């Protein structure tokens, strides 16, 4: 593989062990929706929300709450953002093993590091700040901030804004694979999170089973 000038990372399921925050917050969201009379019945299975990681929020609620209207979806959005912000201080959330150390080593090698996430701006930056990795990134891009309609569009904007020609796109979902491929970049698929179906990473140039494998890949690239 060609050695990259920059590496672009997805957040959920790539850098951040999302379920350490999302699962307790997910149940809080539905508890509040029930209190407000916007939802009744049991909370949808956790597997549904986990399978939606990597999607835009409006797509997520259409899948989690397919029989509810936009009013409920928008309120769920508000609650999710508020409770995730609070939960990052309340819960013992985690990055994947050796994420911080690996990012620091890549920076020492002169690699420009970025985040590109389909999440909301406050959430994505909150995670990076809480886990003290935000200073390692030259840019933290989110669909929420830039109002992009796909990860392809978000990555194209990032590449253009920062004059990046040769990058690795690192992520765990099909949207990351598509974003790398359609922007002409190498795709590293993260097979350690286990979200979604096995076909999620079809088309990735390389699969890794632990985050720190990126160092060996970088060292072996030319």
From TrEMBL:
Any Pfam family from its record, for instance, is: HAD_2
In terms of superkingdom, the source organism counts as: Bacteria
* Alphabetized InterPro entries for the sequence: HAD-like_hydrolase_sf, HAD-like_sf, HAD_2, HAD_sf, PGP-like_dom2
The protein in question is named MTA/SAH nucleosidase
Q: Which organism is it from?
A: Paenibacillus segetis
Q: Gene for this protein? A: pfs
